Amino acid sequence: MGGIPVVSGNTSVERVTIEHVTIRSGKTFAAVRTALEALVPRLDDGFSTLLRFGLADRARQELEAAATLSIFGSRDHGVLLAIAGLKQQAIQYDIGNPLTASLMTRHKISAALYAPIRVLLLESPEGGVAFEYDRPVSTFGQFGDERVNIVARELDENLENVLQKAANSFD
Questions:
Q1: Which of 36, 53, 79, 121 could lock onto 166 through a cystine, CB 3.0 to 4.6 A?
Q2: Are 99 and 60 in contact (CB under 8 A)?
Q3: What is the DSSP letter of 131?
Q4: pLDDT tens digits for range 19-31
């Protein structure tokens, strides 16, 4: 997937191809946001406390019992546009699963650059609503490790399914 590496001193740069996905919705921004946040719960980070106390087995059990995907955090990017005198609704979510991330990063720690996945929910100035994100299979695919790719394909499917449900669910 990579391009020609560029090396200069202690820095290398490699070109990669990323697939960008847009899932449009005929629903309102508020309805899609509500649907997403109902389908994907906020991450309960109690597992990290267990890990700090050396209780890895209990942490793993909690993560295995948790939702397939969770919202790690969110940022209101629409409000930032007020700096430019613009008004637009846009929220960036970090969505993923810590256990899934560990399945990839144990093979390629650099995969942590893309876990969790950033998903943007936006309302265009014309009023259209959409999710946008970079496909996990393409972002993680740059590492060239089939063990990472297997997990990324499953993440890709889970993410697309939940975003499609949020975009197309009925109130």
A1: 36
A2: yes
A3: E
A4: 999 999 999 999 9
